[in-house]
Structure formats: C-alpha cells, structure tokens
C-alpha cells in the first residue's frame, strides 16, 4: 500500500489578492513547494483539487453571506481558478475539479478530466494513507479530510500547511476532524484583520 499527498484548492482566488482571499494562502503555497522539494520521497503520489465553477447557482451570493454563499471565485477560464504561482505542481499526477454547477467543498466530490473520482483514483494507485494540505482549513480542507476518513483512508492534516478563514470556524473544523479520527499535525495559519 502507498501514501499520497492531497493539495486542496491552492488557487489564486484563495490567496492574497484573490476574490476570496485567505490570509496566509501564498505562504501555504510556498511552504508546500518547499516541503515537496525537501522530502521528494515522502509520498508515493501527489494529487490536487481545484474549485472549478461554471455556474454554481446559490453558491455565489450578491451579497454573499459568507456561510452558504460567497463572492464569485475560481470561475473556469479565469486566472483566479489557476494554481498559485508559488505552488510547484511538477509532482501533481492528477487534478480533481469540483463545483462546476453546485457548491462542492470536498475534493472527493470532484473528478479528473477523464471523469474518475478522487477515491477511485487513490484506490487504483493502492493508496491507503493520505496527508492533506491547502486552503481553507475550516472549509475545503475540513470537508476533504472528513470524506477521506469516511472512505477508509488513514488521514492526516498537516495544519502548518493550511490557511484558515476564521478562528471560530477553525475550532469547529478541528473538533470535527479529530472526532472523525483524522490525525492533526501542527497548527493552521490563522490571521485575523
């Protein structure tokens, strides 16, 4: 069996300067790249997820409530949907797009270009353990980690390589992940204004 790194939504719109920026996002991108360079043999496989919106309906709000609706972000074909330039994607073997026509937080709701879902891809590559990094700790990282554990993967979140939106929602997310048997390593980046 093998392990994999799942890089969650390290996209321009979720980093500083983006339409739904999470403070510390660019630092997370650079930190992931440094880790991949420093420990090239740590993971047998590396995959990534992307928020990838075409028309996600009520997921975009005008005005957004920042609970169920959000500013327009990660629209297919925009620079905001692209990976942050500080993220080295050279090791990424597959990208799983999520949320084209509805809200989707978990990478396990996504699919590769050929339609394969993340869980099937991981199983096809004999992965039984996953580490997660990315944005945002309290939303898409949380949802992806919970689904990974539900799917039977031994799941660890490297919190020092995640950026969080807010302390309150991060506390809820950490409790939920811990309660689901997810191993939490380190502390997330949480910067309040």
Number of helices: 4
Q: What share of the residues lie within helices?
A: 10-25%
Kindly, what is the distance between the CA atoms of the first and last residues, rounded to a whole number of angstroms? 43 Å
Q: What is the total tally of β strands?
A: 7
- Form type: globular
Q: Strand share of the residues?
A: 15-25%
Poorly predicted runs: none
Going by helix content, strand content and strand pairing, the class is alpha/beta
Largest sheet: 7 strands, parallel
Q: State mean pLDDT (0 to 100 scale).
A: 95
Output the helix-strand order: EHEEHEHEHEE
Backbone CA Rg: 15 Å
Please, could you describe this protein's structure?
It is a single chain. With 193 residues, this protein is an alpha/beta fold. The chain has 4 helices and 7 strands; from the N terminus they run E-H-E-E-H-E-H-E-H-E-E. It has helices at residues 25-38, 118-124, 137-150, 167-179, and strands spanning 2-8, 45-51, 94-98, 127-135, 154-164, 183-185, 189-190. Strands 1, 2, 3, 4, 5, 6 and 7 form a 7-stranded parallel sheet that branches. Helix 4 (167-179) links the parallel strand 5 and strand 6. Helix 3 packs parallel to helix 4. The longest helix has 14 residues, at 25-38. It is globular. The model has no long low-confidence stretch (mean pLDDT 95).
